[in-house]
Amino acid sequence: MIEKRNTVTIKDVARELGIHHVTVSRALRNTGSVKKETRDQIKKKASELGYKPNRLAQNFRNKRSNVLAVVVPDLRPYFFSKFVSDFMNIAQEAGYSVMIFQSSEKTGVEKEIIDALIGYRVTGVVASVTKDTVYESHFNILRDENIPYVFFDRAPEQAEATQVLVNNFQGAYEAVVAMIKSGKRKIAYISTHYQHKIFRDRLDGYKQALKDNNLPYIKELVIKGGFFMNDGFDQAKKLMDLKEKPDGILAVRDEIGIGVIKYLKKIGFRIPEDVAVIGFDNDPMGVACEPELTTVAQSIPSMVSSSFDLLIRQINSNTLSFEKKIIEPSIIYRGSV
Amino acid sequence: MIEKRNTVTIKDVARELGIHHVTVSRALRNTGSVKKETRDQIKKKASELGYKPNRLAQNFRNKRSNVLAVVVPDLRPYFFSKFVSDFMNIAQEAGYSVMIFQSSEKTGVEKEIIDALIGYRVTGVVASVTKDTVYESHFNILRDENIPYVFFDRAPEQAEATQVLVNNFQGAYEAVVAMIKSGKRKIAYISTHYQHKIFRDRLDGYKQALKDNNLPYIKELVIKGGFFMNDGFDQAKKLMDLKEKPDGILAVRDEIGIGVIKYLKKIGFRIPEDVAVIGFDNDPMGVACEPELTTVAQSIPSMVSSSFDLLIRQINSNTLSFEKKIIEPSIIYRGSV
DNA sequence: GTGAAAGCGCTAACAT
DNA sequence: ATGTTAGCGCTTTCAC
Question: Nucleotide D1: nearest residue by CA–C1'?
């Protein structure tokens, strides 16, 4: 059975020293004026007794936790796990704790998460929304509670909040141009069923690049499907069964792109000689396949530091602002184009 | 500038209704006895006013948060991001929030995290320790505070706490046997510099399998290096530069195994005909490469559910127990053996 | 430089 | 079924 909890409080420390607990509080937080001698004595005794500040009490009293929240649709894809990992490191460095939430791409869960965020009075929120989150409405509740938030990568449309986004249009545009430059003329586009703007932007970039290079937009070459490697495999089959086969394929995710490569190799096409392939996300998985996958990369470290800085600025200035930071992607050339 | 925070408390709800705030508290938590009529009225008014329970106050008052903590060395490797993702899902389902911490493989950070855990009075902890954490000592502080914890995958040696571990010895053993069965006789072993027991167990399994099959243990065929794909690449080069080249390679991580495959293909060896390769972890990345990597897989869902169940049992029974759950790994045959 | 008083929002225990 | 009391551990404000 559990034994008595021997939680040490500032009052215990105070009693031991025959002083007032308020003085202990002051000393331990290095605020107010406490004689150096007393302060040292207090700190010594506190660590001697194994005093650990009760954050629950502190947070309650201060009406705010020291917690930053990160909300992502799914923690497993490389982009998100890397973002979260990096974000945690710089947040912890700066003295914040981090709570992570996963919406599983469900708007309903996202709403519950926001209620929890308010309940916990988190200090700030960094969020990437679900594929279906079109409106900012449920995030507005945070604003009512004066909890600053910034969106990264995926924001609601017309969000009136600070955002750190990738220029997806440009990324897709450049990827298509890269294939055109290497001599490709019939470039296909594989997307997911997800409706979020980032995917529409990529499609727009694709279309514009074709247009600017006097290439026709062929409806059959634009298809949508699932999110994973096997989906890419299946989509590639559909594309290569066409009478007018593509000689280049842009996939909205690296995983999909890898599935494409696997199918192409299976049916004996050479990459990039017969068909070029480009993906999105700079997933390390792209290095595992052969040829290595050329990809449109967004700089995660700069997204992390922008998100963090913009959030902290709002927290410290006690204002809710609306800034838009656009990260320009770049193509990482490997072997598939 | 920030406008006045309009935080609604139970007292506000009570005042509006001309009743006592304790009744509101009872009604909202569905405890004690409150007339159904009153209860309904209260709930209606509460949601009307947009009341959100102040978790900070609740947790403080209850002396415990409703938070489960997960501590991992690094969030990015597939094994950990998948574990955390799954764990969060079932924890959220059960009404807990989750805080995630990353030790970055540093014992010092791990200690700080534990202090934070105590400060936040988390309800329970699930942890996988750093590569250098040999002793349980800093976790014992949690026990003093009656915070239950369970280790998963990586535990301190001789930990006196509940653990969910993988039978690493067996995994390595079977992997070697698999290669022997396919006719390999000179099997190499690539590990990391990490000292943690899980890697030593794998090495032991490797040795035992050789022994049981009357194969000599050749020192030169066992090498250690980094953690990543390029490290595997480099190690493979060393191995294949040997006069006595191996015809099978067991790598302690899939990423390393993929690096090995890349090197072997580069210098023209066929896989698995000339050299077989097996990795550990069932990282989806292994499906991206060619041939697809055969791997020793631990079932992450069962690790998650065991960890969660064992933790919750301790929380609910108010006891700290010491159980050891061993998950048996299995080999997933793909193309590299 | 230190102490005394008050209260954050909530809930357990007791009283009615 | 509802109300009263008290206090969790801490920090802010004001007094000395």
Answer: B34
DSSP B265-316: HHTT--TTTT-EEEEES--THHHHSSSPPEEEE--HHHHHHHHHHHHHHHHH
Verify if strand C has an atom below 7 Å from the CB of B200. no
Q: Chain C bases under 7 Å from protein CB?
A: 1-5, 7-13
Contact A98 B100 (CB under 8 A): yes
Share of chain B above pLDDT 70, in %: 98
Residues B76, B157, single domain; the answer is: yes
Kind plus residue range of the DSSP H or E element containing B225: strand B222-225
pLDDT tens for residues A93-129? Answer: 898 999 999 999 999 999 999 999 998 999 999 999 9
Find the Å distance, CA of residue A69 to C1' of nucleotide D13. 32
Domain total in chain B? 3
Give strand letter and number of the nucleotide nearest B10 (CA to C1'). C9
> CB–CB of A311/A124 below 8 Å?
yes
Q: What is the pLDDT of residues A144-175, one digit of tens each?
A: 888 999 999 999 998 999 999 999 999 999 99
pLDDT band at A217 (very low <50, low <70, confident <90, very high): very high
Residue B205 lies inside a defined structural domain of this protein: yes
Nearest protein residue to the C1' atom of C8, measured from CA: A61
Instruction: Determine if strand D comes within 7 Å of the CB of B26.
Output: yes
pTM here? 0.93
Q: In angstroms, rounded to a whole number, what is the distance separating the alpha carbons of residues A252 and A263?
A: 17
Instruction: State whether B89 and A104 contact (CB < 8 Å).
Output: yes
Answer for the pair B92, B36: CB distance below 8 angstroms, yes or no: no
Distance from CA of B61 to the nearest CA of A (A): 8
Which of B63, B99, B284 lies nearest to residue A99, judging by beta carbons? B99
Tokens 């990260």 locate to A327
Whether residue A147 is found in the same domain as residue A38: no
Amino acid residing at B173: Y
**CATH code of residue B311:** 3.40.50.2300
Q: How many helices (H) and strands (E) does chain B have?
A: 13, 12
Q: How far is the CA of A27 from the C1' of C2 (A)?
A: 11
Q: How far is CA B62 from CA A7, B58, B59, B320, in A?
A: 14, 6, 5, 20
How distant is C1' of C3 from CA of A49, in Å?
A: 23
Quick one: A161 and A73 in the same domain?
yes
Please state, for a pLDDT cut of 90, what percent of chain B lies above it. Answer: 88
DSSP A212: H
From the candidates A28, A96, A258, A285, which should be mutated to test the interface with B, based on the most B CB atoms within 10 A?
A285
B275 domain residue, yes or no: yes
Contact B97 A99 (CB under 8 A): yes
Pairing outcome for strands A294-297 and A330-332: antiparallel
Domain residues for the domain of A162 are: 65-166+300-329
Judged against a pLDDT cut of 70, whether residue A6 lies above it is answered with: no
CB pairs under 8 A between A and B: 153
Contact B8, B22 (CB under 8 A): no
Closest-CA residue of B relative to A255 is B288
Question: In 3-state terms, what secondary structure has residue B183?
Answer: coil
Does A56 sit within 8 Å of B65, measured CB to CB? Answer: yes
Q: Give A181: exposed, middle or buried? Use CB within 10 Å, 0-12, 13-18, 19+.
A: exposed
